[in-house]
Write a structure and sequence with these properties.
Length: about 375
């Protein structure tokens, strides 16, 4: 029979994937669910627009006070929001004239799209979509006396802006919106608990501020060490791009990052990498057992399991063919249990799988998965 899982149930069937996105979270959740995932949504941030903020108005007036030499557009939503705010103040045409007379640098495709949709033309954009590459590009030319407007993307960028100032530029920080913690933190608190308890198989991030917000909130709860440990070993972080992944990689956490920083590419990477890294496949004679996140698949049939049976079958699958004693298995049961609880748990596994031979009893010794000499382990 085939060693491949039944794709009709979806490559992410049996896995729980957390979504931390503020924008497009429903779209991302739908894409993951179509591939079989159970999705937990817990926005780590929310966008607060500053259309009526005095700081944005003051920055806009500073841009209008004299010609601009360079404008850095870092995000599409931010650049559009800036123009919309200026229109509300009756300054749109004046701002457009200043932008049109400047050299516009777009940090990535979304920013470039917003610039061009406004009827402007950008001069350059880095292939990496990296602020560091933008900075290096700007510093490669004389900046002394140049007026540079930097449209920020949710948080101040003191290193970026101060580097330009150190090169002699007059820098105008343009904060169009800010990232802040979501108003309702209950889902985020629950997510931190689930991550620390390894109840989530993977977590997706679409922005670096979302990563930082989650880490900061975990620290507030006193669970940052547990969170980092889970992300290093048991929960797979999937980030939309290298900029998004940077706060995690700085902590020594390996992330899955698609080749293109796009939502669809990230979902495809999740559908490929979560099973590749988190599915344990074992051939039991003519039967194929797959141990997934919160379920197992037996001959292509997805079987959700309660925490107790799942813990026992995970322990058995970690050493296929090896006998684990009842005492060994008591240790993996959640909560307080005894050897009788192990016997009942094994019985529930057999019932759920519809196969009494799926877990073999070895007289006076314990239990094992019946891997024979003809059987082989087909994945890990």
């Amino acid at each position: 029979m085939s060693d491949e899982p039944d794709e009709r149930q979806g490559p992410l069937a049996g896995f729980t994937v957390a979504v931390t996105a503020a924008r497009r979270r429903d779209e991302l959740a739908r894409l993951l669910e179509r591939r079989g995932a159970q999705v937990m949504s817990a926005p780590a941030i929310q966008i607060v627009p500053l259309h009526d903020d005095g700081e944005l108005l003051a920055a806009t007036r500073a841009c209008l006070a004299a010609p601009l030499d360079v404008v850095v557009a870092t995000t599409g939503i931010g650049f559009r929001g800036w123009l919309e705010a200026a229109d509300g103040w009756g300054l749109a045409s004046d701002l457009f004239a200043r932008l049109a007379g400047a050299r516009i640098i777009s940090r990535g495709p979304k920013a470039r799209g917003a610039v061009r949709a406004a009827g402007l033309v950008d001069d350059w954009s880095p292939a990496s979509e990296s602020s560091q590459e933008v900075l290096e590009h700007l510093l490669a030319k004389p900046l002394d006396g140049r007026r540079v407007a930097v449209q920020l993307h949710g948080e101040p960028q003191p290193e970026f802006c101060n580097a330009l100032r150190s090169a002699g530029a007059e820098v105008i920080d343009v904060s169009v919106y800010r990232w802040v913690l979501a108003d309702d933190v209950a889902p985020l608190r629950r997510l931190v608990d689930m991550l620390a308890g390894r109840q989530v198989d993977a977590i997706t991030f679409t922005s670096a501020p979302a990563v930082v917000s989650l880490l900061r909130y975990a620290a507030v709860l006193g669970r940052d060490d547990a969170l980092v440990a889970a992300l290093r070993h048991d929960v797979l972080p999937i980030c939309v791009g290298p900029i998004c992944a940077a706060p995690l990689t700085e902590l020594g956490i390996e992330c899955v990052v698609p080749e293109r920083a796009r939502l669809g590419a990230m979902v495809r990477a999740a559908a490929e990498q979560i099973p590749a890294r988190r599915v344990r496949r074992i051939q039991l004679g003519e039967h194929l057992l797959e141990v997934r996140g919160h379920a197992v698949s037996y001959d292509g049939r997805l079987v959700p399991l309660a925490p107790g049976p799942l813990a026992v079958i995970r322990a058995l699958a970690a050493e296929p063919g090896q006998v684990l004693s009842r005492r060994d298995l008591v240790g993996v049961l959640p909560g307080d249990g005894d050897e009788h609880a192990v016997e009942m748990t094994v019985a529930r596994i057999r019932t759920a799988l519809g196969d009494s031979s799926a877990v073999e009893t070895v007289y006076k010794r314990g239990y094992r998965l019946p891997v024979t000499t003809q059987s082989r382990r087909v994945g890990a």
